[in-house]
Amino acid sequence: MVLKLPPGAKVGRFDGEPVVFVRSTGVWLRDGAWTPDVTGEVFHEGAVMSVEAFNKRWPSLPPLPESMFQLSGKRSETAE
């Protein structure tokens, strides 16, 4: 499944796990669930990747919760 991203989002990795960055916040896939970066460590220490490299490394990810970035009712971009 291709990950749907909120507008302006970037993708990357932190500690070997996938990360989505939006504005000054990051969420990462930890133990199978998207987890907000409450300490700021993911945002400051995570590495940005191209969408192509991200999708190649993690071809099947669970969707981001709509409430996490308010995806519902807004135009989303697809990570492809």
Q: What is this structure, in a nutshell?
A:
The chain has 80 residues and is α+β, with helices and mostly antiparallel strands. 20% of the residues lie in helices and 35% in strands.
Please explain how this structure is put together:
By secondary structure, the protein is α+β, with helices and mostly antiparallel strands. It has a domain at 4-58. The chain is 20% helix and 35% strand. It is built from 3 helices and 7 strands, in the order E-E-E-E-E-H-E-H-H-E. It has helices spanning 41-45, 51-57, 66-69, and strands at residues 4-5, 10-14, 17-22, 25-30, 33-36, 47-49, 77-78. The protein has a 5-stranded antiparallel β-sheet. Strands 1-7 form a two-stranded antiparallel ribbon. Strand 2 (10-14) and strand 3 (17-22) form a beta hairpin. The longest helix is centred in the C-terminal third of the chain and has 7 residues, at 51-57. The termini are close together. Residues 71-77 have low confidence and may be disordered.
Using brief descriptors, characterize the structure shown.
alpha+beta; five-stranded antiparallel sheet; 80 residues; 3 helices; globular; single chain
User: What's the order of the H and E elements?
Assistant: EEEEEHEHHE
Summarize the main sheet: 5 strands, antiparallel
Name the helicity range.
10-25%
- Radius of gyration from the alpha-carbon trace, in angstroms: 11 Å
Beta-strand percentage range:
35-45%
Q: Record the strand order, biggest sheet.
A: 5-4-3-2-6
State the low-pLDDT regions, or none. 71-77
Overall 3D geometry? globular
